[in-house]
Structure formats: structure tokens, C-alpha cells
Amino acid sequence: MTILNNQRVIAIEEHYVDANVMANVQGTDAAAAGPIRALLDDVGEARIKSMDAAKIDVQVLSHAPPAAQQMDAETGVRIARDANDALHQICQNHPDRFAAFAMLPTADAAASADELERCVDKLDFKGAIIHGLTGDARLFIDDKRFWPIFERAQALDAPLYIHPAMPHPAVFDAYYKDYAKDFPALATAGFGFTMETAVAGLRIVLSGVLEKYPGVKIILGHLGEALPFLLWRIDMALNRPGNKGVAFREIFTSNFYLTTSGFFSDPALLCCIQEMGVDRLLFAIDYPFVENDPGPKWMEGLMLNVDDKAKILHGNAERLLGM
Ligand code: MN
User: Fold this and answer.
1) 147, 192, 204, 265: which could join 187 in a potential S-S bond, CB 3.0 to 4.6 Å?
2) pLDDT at 2 over 80
3) Which positions ≥6 away from 118 have C-beta within 8 Å?
4) Spatial contact of 210 and 242, defined as CB atoms under 8 Å apart
């Protein structure tokens, strides 16, 4: 018997799209098109069939980027609320198979905090997902005007999943444009998403928001967006003379959780476990941007003891998300 035959498997960064949300998203950020779109639209039998084939018991669903992050406050508040209600219904249709992270209209931080509370308290959502930068000003989520979201997340004990979206346009032009035609993934999953989200994670620590609200739990996908690999050097350099100094490594390893979304590498996972401890690693696929099948197969063959695999596959999610 393989490990997966008797393990509950919970995958926590699994995406879908809401037609009404997509109708209000424009430009390059509306990239979830083509053959992927049909898979994102499907939240019924075909998706569950794919989960069954890969032995995935539960998907924690979240909208694909950029969701409401680029919407103005008035539009975002209305559309996020409708989308979260619709997502609740999707979960109700298959309560054993689907759970949810809320979409937040971050252009209005106070409304986002209230929506997070509504989703967690009334709809049994497991937390919220935030996709990249907010609004035309392209604000990172550590900006002080967003701190009410962190405050409420702490009060609710609901994690915030910091997820990639398209890089800042100026970053795209300076760093990726020259190679974007031949390698469009360079600016996205190939590198740009990781860089953008690693910076978001770094800035959350530097902002002091986690010292003000130490109970906040942050989730990063893609094995921590390279930060575990860089942890020692970041911690060392930010505490050199001339810097304000920050307990970076201590805060990162106390407040952050990482998932395996779209990153099925033994050495990269082992680096994460060595830096963070296995209790902070959670299984995810990043479906349908990544196929379901390879993830569980990777876990099956991974040279890791049975107890730690069980924590990654379901135990840590059950504890962190109350599932
Ligand atoms: Mn994703």
C-alpha cells in the first residue's frame, strides 16, 4: 500500500475563476485565458474527477489572480462579496471536497477586514488570499493603510495567503521585457512571480506589522518564494551596521507557513524543512496552472518519513485551517 492510499490529501492553493470577476479584470492581468480557462471555470464533476484520479481529497479554493486587487474600492467591495457568496455555494455543493479562501477588495482596507470576518464567521472560509499589488498606485500589502486587514486576521485567527500576480509594470519593463517574447513565463511562474511575492513577504516582515499583530499567520506558496534559501543571508545583511536591524529569521520562521504549490523538488523542500521545521509545510498543487497528478506522485516517492509526509499532506492544514 502506498502512503497516499491511507492519507487524507488536502491541497490548499487551488484556483478557479468567477465569470463576474473576470468580466471586471482588464489588461495583461487577465491572463487566465486559453485552455486553462475551461479548467478554471469548472468547479464541479470534472474537477472532482481529476482530484479523484490524483488522490486529492480536498481542494481549498481561491480565485486566480488578480481577483479584486486591481479594482477600485466601490467595484471591488461589491464584486468580492458576490464572488465570495458564489464560492460559498460551490463549497456547499461539495462540502467534503472543497473549502475556500476569501477574495478581499483591498482598495478598501476596512471593507476587506469586514469581508474577511464575514467569510470566516458566516461562510466558514479558512482565511483569505491576496494577489500582488493593489490599485493603480501598485501598493504592496505591507502599506500601513492595509494594517486593518492584518489586525482582523489576527483577531479571527485566519491566515493570509500572499499569492503572486503580474509584476509591477516598471519591473516588467526593466527586468523582463527583453526576453518576454521568447520566454513569457520569465515574468510569471519562471521567475517574476517569485521575485514579486518574495519582496511582498520581505516587506511584511520589515514593516513591523507582525510585531504589532504577532498572531498573524502568513502563507507563501511555491516553497516560500525562495525566501527559505535566502534566509540566512537576508538575516545577516539586514543586521549589519547601518541597518535598523530586525529579527528577520525569527519572525519569518514564527509567522510564515509555506506550501508546495507548483514546486515539486526534493532539495528545495528539504531546504524549507531545515529552515522552517516540517510543521510549517503544507501540500498544494496550484491547479490548474499545474496538473494534479505530479504532486501526489512526488510526495509518494519523496525520501521523507511517513509522519512528516502526513503532516505535509493533511495534518498541518487541519491544524492551521481548522479542517
Ligand atoms: Mn497559484
Assistant:
1) 192
2) no
3) 81, 84
4) no
* Separation between Cα atoms, residue 169 and residue 190, nearest integer Å: 17
Query: What is residue 1's predicted lDDT score, i.e. its pLDDT?
Result: 43
Dmax (CA) for the chain in angstroms is 58
**Sheet arrangement for strand 102-103:** 102-103, 128-131, 160-163, 218-220, 256-259, 281-282
Separation of CA 102 and ligand 1 centre (Å)? 14
Q: How many CB atoms lie within 10 A of CB 320?
A: 19
Helix (H), strand (E) at residue 13: strand 10-16
- For residue range 166-222, list pLDDT tens digits in order: 999 999 999 999 999 999 999 999 999 999 999 999 999 999 999 999 999 999 999
**210-232 per-residue burial string, b: 16 or more CB within 10 A, e: under 16:** beebeebbbbbbbbbbbbbbebe
CA of 14 to the centre of ligand 1 (A): 7
Strands ordered across the beta sheet of 98-100: 10-16, 58-63, 98-100
Average pLDDT rounded to a whole number, residues 7-15: 96
Rounded to the nearest 5°, which phi and psi values hold at 60?
-90, 110
Radius of gyration for the alpha carbons in the chain, expressed in angstroms and rounded: 19
Tell me, yes or no, if 286 is annotated catalytic.
yes
Bridge-partner residues for 58, per DSSP? 10
Instruction: Examine residue 294 and say whether the peptide bond preceding it is cis (omega within 30 degrees of 0).
Output: no
Residue tagged active-site, from 124, 182, 286, 308: 286
Q: How far apart are CA 290 and CA 288, in angstroms?
A: 5
Separation of 285 CA from ligand 1 center, angstroms? 8
pTM > 0.90: yes or no = yes
State the distance from the centre of ligand 1 to the C-alpha of 178, rounded, in angstroms.
25
> How far, in Å, from the CA of 73 to the mean position of ligand 1?
24
